[in-house]
C-alpha cells in the first residue's frame, strides 16, 4: 500500500500546474517549525509537506536541480527531514546542503536544521564547513547553549553521526572566544555521558590559560580531565603553564612527578615553561637546576631555554653572568636572536654603559641578528638621556636607513632628549617630522614637550601647545596639569597655576600630594604664606596628607620671610607626625637662624639634627660659617672648617671665599693669607 502511495506521489509531482499554482504555494508555506507535519492527524492522510519532502528526495536521487519555487514551501523542519532521509547517502545530503546555501542564502534555519547539516558535513569530513555552521549556531541571537546542545544530541542518532561533532562544538566555542560557554557546554556533555576527545579538552584548557583564567582551567581539569586515561604531553604542558602562571611552581613540579608515574613525560616545552617561570621570579638557582635536569633527560636547550635565563640574570643586574650564558649558547651551536641581544642592550643602556652597549649592538650585527625597533629605541633612549643627541640621531638615521619606521615611542624619546638639554627648536623639528610621517602625538608626547617648554620658562608657548592638545582631541592627564602648574609656579604666576588646579577638578582629575606640594612651594616662594597654609589645610580636608616635601617648603618659606617661630611650629608638627626631616629641611632652619643673626642657636640645631640621624652637608657648614663670619666670630668659623674636614666634607670655593671675605673685612690679612695658601695648596681657585 505504501509503495502505491509513493508511486502516486511521484506521478503527481510531474503535474506542474497544480504544484506551482499560487493557491498551492500559499497553502503550503509556513514559518513554524513545529506546525509542519508530514502526516495529518488522520494517519491515512498525507500533508503537503510530505509531497514536498518526496519531491525534493526524488530530485536529489535523480541528480536533478530542485525547482526554486520549492523555496517558498521549504522550512527548517522539512530541511531536517531531508537530511535524515539522506543518512545513508552522504553525497545526496551534501548536494542538498550546498544547493540551499547557494540558492537560498537567507534561509531561516533552526538549531535543529543546522545541527542536522553539521552532522552530515562532519560525516563527509568537511570539518571547516561544519565548524562554520556551528559558529553560526553559536552566534545566532536567541539560541541558547542548551538549545544548541539539545539539537546536536537529538539529531546525532538520526544522522548516523560520530562524536567528532561534539569535539568541534567545544573547539568552535573556544575559537569564538566564548570560553565560559565552552566550559558549561563541556560540563553539560559530561552530564549526558558524552565524552569529547582529549584534544578538545586541551583546546579549552589552552584557551583559558591564554586569557589568564587559570583558576577556571584548574577547575575544568579537576572536574573533567584529571581521571581520563588518554592524557598526553599537551595536557601536561598546559597544566604546568597553569601552575606557573598562578605562581605555584612547586605544584607544577609535583604535577610533573605525578604525570611521570602515569607514563606522560615532560618535553622541552615543559622545561622551558618552568625555567621561564623561575627566572621571571628571580629564582635563578632553581632555573639553572631545571636546565641541568633537562640536560640529564637528554634534551638540548634551545633559544627559548636560554633567553629567559639571560633576561633573569640581567634583571638581577648580573650582566657578566648573562654574557657567560650568551657565550655558552654560541658554543652549543645556537645563534642568539634579536630578543637575546635586546635584553643585554637594555641592561647596558640602563646603566648608561655606552662602550658595552655599542659593543653589544655591533656583536648583534656580526652574528646576523637583525636589530628591531626595540634595539634602536633602547640605544636612542640611552644617548638622549645622557645628552649625546648626536649619537642618538645617528642611530635614528641608521634605523630609518634599514627600513624601520619610527613609532611614537622613538619620536617621543628624541623629543625628550632635546627638551632635556634645552634645545626646544630641535625638539619641535622632530615633532614636525613625526606628524609628517603619520605618527599621531599622544598625551605622553605632548607632556614631554610641555615639560621642556616649562623648564625653559616658555609659558606662552606651553599654553599654545596645551590648547592644540585639546583641539586635537588628546585629553590632558594628571601629568599635563602638574607640569603646567609647576611651570607657572616657577615664574611666580600663581593665579594661572590656581586656574589650572581648579580645571583639574572640572576634568575629574584628582590632584595628588605632588600637585599640592608644587602649589604650596609656589606660594612660599612668592611670600604668600597664608595662602600656602590654607592650601595645606585644604589638602588635608581632601584626605591627602602632607609629607616631608610639604613641610620642607613651608619651613623654608617661613624662614625666608623671617617667621622663624612659625617655621619651628611646622618643624614640631612634622616631627610629631613621625615624618623624618631631610637635610633640605634642616638647612632651611639653619639658614633662618643665621639670617636672624643667631648663629649660636643654628650651631645648637646642628647637634639636634645629627641626633635625628640627619647628617650635615657642605651647604649646612657653608651656611653656618657664613653666619659666624657675619657676626665676626672668625675662630668659630675656622673651627667649623676643621669639623667639616674631620667629617669627610672638603671645603669648596664658596667656603674659602666666605672666610677670606671675613678676614679681609676685619683687616686680618695674616689670617686671609693663611686661608688663601690653604686654598691654593688644594688646587682651589677663586
Automatic annotation (TrEMBL):
Official protein name in the record: Pentatricopeptide repeat-containing protein
Q: Give the range the annotation lists for the signal sequence.
A: none
Q: Which keywords does this chain's UniProt record carry?
A: Repeat
Query: Is Repeat tagged as a keyword?
Result: yes
- First and last residues of every PPR repeat: 232-266, 267-301, 302-336, 337-371, 372-406, 407-441, 442-476, 477-511, 512-546, 547-581, 582-616, 617-651, 652-686
Q: Which Pfam families does this UniProt record tie to the protein? A: PPR (PF01535), PPR_1 (PF12854), PPR_2 (PF13041)
According to its UniProt record, which protein family does this protein belong to?
Answer: Belongs to the PPR family. P subfamily.
Amino acid at each position: 500500500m505504501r509503495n502505491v502511495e509513493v508511486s502516486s506521489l511521484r506521478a503527481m509531482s510531474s503535474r506542474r500546474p497544480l504544484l506551482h499554482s499560487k493557491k498551492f504555494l500559499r497553502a503550503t508555506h509556513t514559518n513554524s517549525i513545529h506546525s509542519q507535519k508530514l502526516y495529518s492527524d488522520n494517519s491515512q492522510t498525507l500533508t503537503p509537506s510530505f509531497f514536498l519532502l518526496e519531491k525534493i528526495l526524488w530530485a536529489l536521487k535523480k541528480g536533478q536541480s530542485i525547482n526554486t519555487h520549492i523555496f517558498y514551501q521549504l522550512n527548517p523542519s522539512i530541511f531536517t527531514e531531508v537530511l535524515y532521509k539522506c543518512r545513508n547517502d552522504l553525497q545526496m545530503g551534501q548536494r542538498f546542503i550546498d544547493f540551499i546555501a547557494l540558492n537560498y542564502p537567507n534561509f531561516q534555519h533552526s538549531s535543529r536544521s543546522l545541527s542536522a547539516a553539521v552532522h552530515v558535513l562532519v560525516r563527509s569530513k568537511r570539518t571547516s564547513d561544519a565548524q562554520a555552521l556551528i559558529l553560526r549556531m553559536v552566534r545566532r541571537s536567541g539560541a541558547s547553549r542548551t538549545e544548541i546542545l539539545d539539537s546536536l544530541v537529538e539529531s546525532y542518532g538520526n544522522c548516523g553521526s560520530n562524536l567528532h561533532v561534539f569535539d568541534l562544538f567545544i573547539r568552535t566555542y573556544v575559537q569564538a572566544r566564548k570560553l565560559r560557554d565552552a566550559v558549561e557546554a563541556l560540563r553539560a556533555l559530561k552530564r549526558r555521558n558524552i565524552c569529547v576527545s582529549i584534544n578538545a579538552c586541551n583546546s579549552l584548557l589552552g584557551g583559558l590559560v591564554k586569557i589568564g583564567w587559570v583558576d577556571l582551567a584548574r577547575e575544568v581539569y579537576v572536574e573533567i580531565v584529571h581521571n581520563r586515561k588518554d592524557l598526553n604531553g599537551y595536557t601536561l604542558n598546559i597544566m604546568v603553564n597553569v601552575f606557573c602562571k598562578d605562581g605555584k611552581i612547586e605544584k607544577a613540579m609535583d604535577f610533573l612527578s605525578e604525570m611521570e608515574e602515569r607514563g606522560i613525560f615532560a618535553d622541552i616545552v615543559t622545561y622551558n615553561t618552568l625555567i621561564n617561570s623561575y627566572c621571571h621570579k628571580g629564582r635563578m638557582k632553581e632555573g639553572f637546576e631545571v636546565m641541568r635536569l633537562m640536560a640529564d633527560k637528554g634534551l638540548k636547550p634551545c633559544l627559548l631555554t636560554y633567553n629567559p635565563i639571560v633576561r633573569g640574570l640581567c634583571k638581577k643586574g648580573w650582566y657578566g653572568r648573562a654574557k657567560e650564558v650568551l657565550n655558552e649558547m654560541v658554543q652549543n651551536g645556537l645563534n642568539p636572536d634579536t630578543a637575546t641581544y635586546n635584553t643585554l642592550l637594555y641592561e647596558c643602556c640602563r646603566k648608561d654603559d655606552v662602550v658595552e652597549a655599542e659593543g653589544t649592538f655591533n656583536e648583534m650585527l656580526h652574528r646576523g641578528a637583525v636589530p628591531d625597533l626595540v634595539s634602536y629605541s633602547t640605544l636612542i633612549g640611552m644617548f638622549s638621556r645622557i645628552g649625546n643627541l648626536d649619537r642618538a640621531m645617528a642611530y635614528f638615521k641608521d634605523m630609518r636607513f634599514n627600513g624601520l619606521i619610527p613609532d611614537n615611542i622613538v619620536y617621543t624619546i628624541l623629543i625628550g632628549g632635546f627638551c632635556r638639554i634645552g634645545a626646544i627648536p630641535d625638539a619641535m623639528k622632530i615633532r614636525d617630522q613625526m606628524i609628517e610621517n603619520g605618527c599621531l602625538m599622544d598625551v605622553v608626547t605632548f607632556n614631554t614637550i610641555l615639560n621642556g617648554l616649562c623648564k625653559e620658562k616658555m609659558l606662552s608657548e606651553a599654553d599654545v601647545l596645551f590648547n592644540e592638545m585639546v583641539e586635537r582631541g588628546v585629553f590632558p592627564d594628571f601629568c599635563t596639569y602638574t607640569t603646567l602648574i609647576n611651570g607657572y609656579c616657577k615664574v611666580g604666576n600663581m593665579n594661572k597655576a590656581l586656574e589650572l588646579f581648579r580645571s583639574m577638578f572640572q576634568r575629574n582629575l584628582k590632584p595628588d600630594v605632588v600637585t599640592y606640594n608644587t602649589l604650596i612651594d609656589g606660594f612660599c616662594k612668592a611670600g604668600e604664606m597664608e595662602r600656602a597654609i590654607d592650601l595645606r589645610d585644604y589638602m588635608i580636608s581632601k584626605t591627602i596628607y602632607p609629607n616631608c616635601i610639604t613641610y620642607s617648603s613651608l619651613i623654608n618659606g617661613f624662614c625666608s620671610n623671617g617667621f622663624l617661630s612659625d617655621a619651628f611650629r611646622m618643624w614640631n608638627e612634622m616631627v610629631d607626625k613621625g615624618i623624618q626631616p631631610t637635610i633640605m629641611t634642616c638647612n632651611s632652619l639653619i639658614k633662618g637662624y643665621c639670617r636672624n643673626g643667631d648663629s649660636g642657636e643654628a650651631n645648637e640645631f646642628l647637634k639636634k639634627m645629627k641626633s635625628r640621624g640627619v647628617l650635615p652637608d657642605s651647604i649646612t657648614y657653608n651656611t653656618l660659617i657664613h653666619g659666624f663670619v657675619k657676626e665676626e666670630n672668625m675662630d668659630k668659623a675656622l673651627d667649623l672648617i676643621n669639623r667639616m674636614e674631620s667629617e669627610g666634607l672638603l671645603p669648596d670655593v664658596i667656603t674659602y671665599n666666605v672666610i677670606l671675605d671675613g678676614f679681609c673685612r676685619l683687616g686680618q690679612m695674616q689670617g686671609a693669607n693663611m686661608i688663601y695658601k690653604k686654598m691654593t695648596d688644594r688646587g682651589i681657585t677663586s
